[in-house]
């Protein structure tokens, strides 16, 4: 779309005086109206779109701080909308999916969604999820750079590199890598990671599995035989700062 050339860069996110802008994309007018109303009352600036092309146009005009994106849209589905937005710049995405469609939820996570909420859902829960994702997407007030095995993470700039080359990480992938680098050699269960990285005490653990798989694809020399993020059978995952070949890959 030609409008992408004029899209505002997301440089204003660091301004604490600016209200966060949320783009709600759902073709169900009732759902969109309810979600917009709750987010508006929570203090956000809300844009709405009822299909993929309109969502991309809205994003080009005013780059959002977060997108609430329905997976099942007419024409261009939510997965394609997410791909195109992520191709233009980083933006947190919360997917809305139908209850029981586990394959669709996994697909949403695979293309980089940071969270998902299943329909029917509590609007209050969605607002809490939005607050959680936005809170973790803000640059850290202070924090030392982290590094090991050719990887470096700058928490304040939210920038990660491998051997000097910048990594294109989603919000959750960045947080997950940062957590591993802070705790090298320690094994964590998926429940541990969900609580410490996502900030949830409960949820679908496949979220963690998918994000570990995606992160491996970006930091490992051979994702099929991971040396850095190793599976600890019966426990979960461990970051090996030495990068030595260890236990067999798995999820």
From TrEMBL:
This is Response regulator transcription factor. Residues 141-241 bind DNA. Gene3D superfamilies: 3.40.50.2300, 6.10.250.690, Winged helix-like DNA-binding domain superfamily/Winged helix DNA-binding domain (1.10.10.10). SUPFAM superfamilies: CheY-like. The keyword Ligase does not apply. Keywords: DNA-binding, Phosphoprotein, Transcription, Transcription regulation, Two-component regulatory system. Residues 141-241 form the OmpR/PhoB-type domain. The lineage of its organism: Bacteria, Bacillati, Actinomycetota, Actinomycetes, Kitasatosporales. One of its GO terms (cellular component) is cytosol. One of its GO terms (molecular function) is transcription cis-regulatory region binding. Residues 21-134 form the Response regulatory domain. InterPro entries: CheY-like_superfamily, OmpR/PhoB-type_DNA-bd, Sig_transdc_resp-reg_receiver, WalR-like, WH-like_DNA-bd_sf. Pfam families: Response_reg (PF00072), Trans_reg_C (PF00486). It comes from the Bacteria. GO terms for biological process: regulation of DNA-templated transcription. The keyword Transcription regulation applies.
